């Protein structure tokens, strides 16, 4: 029989609170408006680049491998560490770097609006960083890293949570715009869950000079979405 000591119990409680904080952060119910954006996927449907479940899976795998693994996920590690060190200059540097990688006005607007919404939410919860640490025009990834730091979420779990939230959002887009049935969405979740773990493994090994997304198809789709005649998602 295993007996928990007071120290064990305290550590378990801290870990439980961190997990619940992460679940709160990645929940679709988080009121920041992430559901309103498709990240070029709606254009991929309109242009016939993605027409069925298998093609959607291929698209998502490509975005994960050449996008999140190269950009957002390794950046989260660096930002979370900078927040933990109270290094405002490094936070600002990586925040600016991320803005520079956004290839369309739509992608920049999404990042800034979600970041601003997360600032308002964290402010209402009295969880904003101390004065002077928050960079000008903080993006969503920057604030996600801060929230994970406040919740004492380990870096690996932060990356898994962010990747999971991205996948759920993209599948929600497909269910609305493709349309994709919910059972098919679950099949894609099963297909991509191992890919998320692999993406985190690779992201944790990236050196600074290796960072940067390579997503010409997504960038083109996002640019075309800005003038798409009929659309469900924001531009």
From TrEMBL:
UniProt keyword annotations, A-Z: Chaperone, Cytoplasm, Nickel insertion
This protein's GO CC annotations: cytoplasm
Keyword Ligase: no
Transmembrane segments: none
Location relative to the cell: Cytoplasm
A GO molecular function held by the record: nickel cation binding
Superkingdom of the source species: Bacteria
InterPro entries named in the record: UreF, UreF_sf
Keyword set includes Protease: no
Similarity remark: Belongs to the UreF family.
Subunit description: UreD, UreF and UreG form a complex that acts as a GTP-hydrolysis-dependent molecular chaperone, activating the urease apoprotein by helping to assemble the nickel containing metallocenter of UreC. The UreE protein probably delivers the nickel.
Role played: Required for maturation of urease via the functional incorporation of the urease nickel metallocenter.
Protein name from the UniProt record: Urease accessory protein UreF
Gene of this entry: ureF
């Amino acid at each position: 029989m295993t007996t928990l000591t007071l120290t064990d119990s305290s550590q378990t409680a801290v870990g439980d609170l961190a997990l619940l904080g992460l679940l709160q952060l990645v929940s679709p119910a988080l009121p920041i408006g992430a559901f309103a954006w498709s990240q070029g996927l709606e254009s991929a449907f309109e242009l016939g680049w993605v027409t069925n479940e298998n093609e959607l899976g291929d698209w998502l795998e490509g975005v994960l491998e050449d996008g999140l693994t190269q950009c957002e996920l390794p950046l989260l590690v660096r930002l979370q560490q900078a927040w933990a060190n109270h290094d405002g200059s490094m936070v600002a540097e990586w925040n600016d770097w991320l803005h520079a990688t956004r290839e369309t006005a739509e992608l920049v607007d999404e990042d800034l609006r979600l970041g601003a919404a997360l600032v308002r939410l964290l402010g209402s919860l009295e969880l904003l960083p101390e004065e002077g640490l928050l960079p000008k025009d903080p993006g969503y990834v920057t604030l996600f890293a801060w929230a994970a730091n406040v919740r004492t979420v380990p870096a690996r779990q932060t990356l898994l949570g962010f990747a999971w939230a991205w996948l759920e959002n993209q599948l929600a887009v497909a269910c609305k715009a493709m349309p994709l049935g919910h059972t098919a969405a679950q099949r894609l979740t099963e297909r991509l869950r191992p890919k998320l773990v692999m993406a985190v493994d690779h992201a944790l090994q990236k050196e600074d000079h290796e960072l940067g997304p390579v997503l010409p198809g997504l960038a083109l789709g996002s640019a075309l979405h800005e003038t798409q005649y009929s659309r469900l998602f924001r531009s």
